[in-house]
Design brief:
mainly alpha
């Protein structure tokens, strides 16, 4: 019963951000030209990786919700290193979690957190760029050209005149919804289900607050990584837990490791990275998160001690970040999309048997 309750809670927490991520993937695919994304985030090196981190940092997407958006960027021409940078910076922070951090953790941690997320993303992106050059897999880039110089989905009106703009907008919006809520859900549904199930199991048998018993320092930071990496928790939901850990006596740097490693990845994220970019990228992704999180955590504790900054008095309480109606509407919509995807998958398996 506890497992099912935790699964339901995690699904309700994740649903709005997952839905937002799928919709963002559709909008990216339909409205942003592939060549523009290739110029922004293509190629290796410091600048594309930094741009991906800075673009992703303010977006309010969780570690599951960022997957469809990141994979859409990848399939549209973003390099592996830029995609990894985006995958890390986006779930680790966002405008929603920064605001909640200010309310719960105080102004100092509200400033440190997004800076740490961007630095972690850039570091891991640079590590990724050290491996073999990017190879792009265009799973959904087979739409026919509608006229010379254009490669748009056939529902678009890329060759129409101004009088067709309204129809073109409707067709593109429909294409975005179909790509986000059908194509991307079909691609990611199994890993998302596995990830949410394992996250519920972790929440049931190894809840984050058990870490308070381990104190602070390097050993506690390593334990934060061990628990945080496979567990699903979004940046917003991790913030009240961080405040509770601080009140329990855990050092700010150790808590920051949890705030970075927890939202940055989970089983679903690791599965999709392995599927889309290969085992070597997954290994570097995890290595970069581990090294950067602990380094930043140690640096944070040292910095706060050097300047005698006391953040414990800044901790407060906050409740109800999203309205209930939005949470349940998102969960219902996502559940319908997932159910349709699973039915199609089972039907294909049954017909093939």
């Amino acid at each position: 019963m506890a497992l099912l309750n935790n699964l339901a809670d995690i699904f309700l927490d994740a649903a709005p951000w997952l839905l937002l991520g799928f919709l963002a993937a559709g909008l990216i695919k339909v409205w942003l030209p592939d060549d523009l994304l290739s110029r922004w985030l293509g190629g290796e090196g410091f600048w594309p990786i930094t741009k991906a981190a800075v673009i992703g940092a303010p977006l309010p997407l969780c570690s599951c919700g960022v997957l469809p958006a990141a994979m859409s960027l990848r399939r549209s021409g973003a390099s592996r290193s830029s995609t990894v940078s985006f995958l890390i910076a986006t779930p680790e922070t966002g405008v929603d979690s920064i605001a909640l951090s200010y309310a719960l953790l105080g102004p100092v941690m509200a400033v440190i957190r997004p800076i740490a997320a961007i630095l972690s993303a850039i570091f891991t992106g640079l590590l990724t760029s050290l491996i073999a050059p990017s190879k792009i897999t265009n799973h959904h880039n087979d739409s026919p050209a509608c006229c010379e110089g254009h490669t748009e989905p056939e529902t678009d009106s890329c060759c129409d005149g101004p009088e067709q703009l309204k129809t073109g907008f409707i067709n593109r919006s429909n294409s975005a919804l179909r790509f986000g809520l059908v194509d991307m859900v079909d691609d990611l549904v199994l890993w998302l289900i596995v990830g949410l199930l394992l996250a519920a199991a972790m929440q049931t048998w190894a809840p984050p607050m058990i870490l308070a018993e381990w104190g602070s320092g390097l050993s506690a930071m390593l334990l934060m990584l061990l628990v945080g990496i496979p567990t699903y928790i979004c940046a917003t939901a991790s913030t009240p837990i961080a405040a509770a850990l601080l009140l329990a006596g855990i050092s700010p740097g150790t808590v920051l490791v949890f705030l970075l490693a927890g939202p940055a990845t989970n089983i679903a994220t690791m599965g999709v990275i392995h599927q889309e970019m290969g085992k070597s990228v997954l290994i570097i992704y995890l290595l970069g998160i581990c090294v950067s999180s602990i380094t930043i955590g140690l640096a944070t504790d040292s910095l706060l001690e050097t300047f005698s900054i006391d953040i414990y008095g800044q901790i407060s309480q906050a409740e109800g970040w999203l309205p209930d109606w939005l949470v349940y509407l998102s969960a219902t919509t996502l559940l319908i999309a997932v159910t349709i995807s699973l039915v199609k998958m089972l039907r294909r398996r049954f017909l093939a048997a």
